[in-house]
Amino acid sequence: MKNIDLIEDNINNLTGLWKTVGTPFLSYHKNNTFEYCKIENSGWPNKLWLRKDISKKDLPDVIKTMQNNSGLVLPYWDIFGTKSYEILDAYGFEIRTEQVAMALKLDQKFTLEHNLTFKRVSAEQDAKIWADLYPNAFGYIISKEILIHNHNDVHFYLVSLDDQPLGTFMLFQTQNTIGIHGVGVIPEMRRKGFAEEIMKFALNLSIDLKANYVLLQASAMGKDIYTRLGFKDLFTIKNYVLKA
What CA–CA distance (Å, rounded) separates 85 from 137? Predict the structure, then answer.
């Protein structure tokens, strides 16, 4: 598959996930310029995104929507070769985080080395454990209601060692690609190889689900693991917020 197709698939998987989880809450909205999803009492997804390159004429509506929906983040896909992000820099936005969109062509399964257990979340009790654990790894909340309403469309997994929950991840499939999202390990269990083991399990599961490619968006903390597993860089995502 060409890089240009993988770039489009990466964006479609990520924004499709946001749209999917927001729809049961009537929290997904779309107009001619942009789409956004803001779920109350949750720190995620809470994104506003454009399907095309941003221009100055888009800004009044974008800014008004972000002002009326506090906590929205605007991901800028650095794929246009135009430096249009300079418009955001000049009009009261600032970068909160940056990520690298990556892809891996699935080939053969990985051998698992740790005795981790992986449980797909479907019951409310497990959804609560997952939702309580997630902020310890990421610093923001995904409400248990999101899991309860979306567990058929999104695979939420709880990861444990000796019956003690230590991590999370999500899988979201779009056609023959799968996005791996929310791979997290609580701070006290880091640097033990568990994040890489979670990724290997998720990749093996993606092969079982007949995917050809796996896609993700890497933070600086996770990128080395993904590169070691064979993922290739596609593009940079700059996540903007309005300056306070």
Answer: 29
Helix (H) or strand (E) segment spanning residue 238: strand 232-242
Smallest CA-to-CA distance from 46 within 241, 182, 196 is with 241
Rg (CA), the chain: 18
Ramachandran angles phi, psi of 147, nearest 5°: -65, -45
What does DSSP say about strands 164-174 and 155-161: parallel, antiparallel, or unpaired? antiparallel
Task: Give me the DSSP letters along 13-72.
Answer: HHHHHHHHHHGGGT-EEE-SSEEEE--TT--S--EEEESS---GGGHHHHHHHHHHSTT-
**Residue 13, beta-bridge partner list:** none
* DSSP symbol at 73: B
- Of 43, 84, 45, 36, the closest CA to residue 63 belongs to 36
H helix and E strand count, the chain: 7, 11
C-beta separation of 48 from 36 below 8 A: yes
Q: Which two tokens stand for residue 5?
A: 């197709």
- Give 70's contacts (C-beta < 8 A, 6+ positions apart): none
Nearest-angstrom CA–CA distance, 215 and 102 = 6
Burial class (CB in 10 A: 0-12, 13-18, 19+), 167: buried
Are 153 and 137 within 8 A, CB to CB? Answer: no
Q: pLDDT tens digits, residue range 124-158?
A: 999 999 999 999 999 999 999 999 999 999 999 99
Distances (CA, A) of 202 to 20, 48, 176: 20, 28, 15
Q: What is the pLDDT of residues 199-217, one digit of tens each?
A: 999 999 999 999 999 999 9
Query: What are the structure tokens assigned to 171, written together?
Result: 């899988």
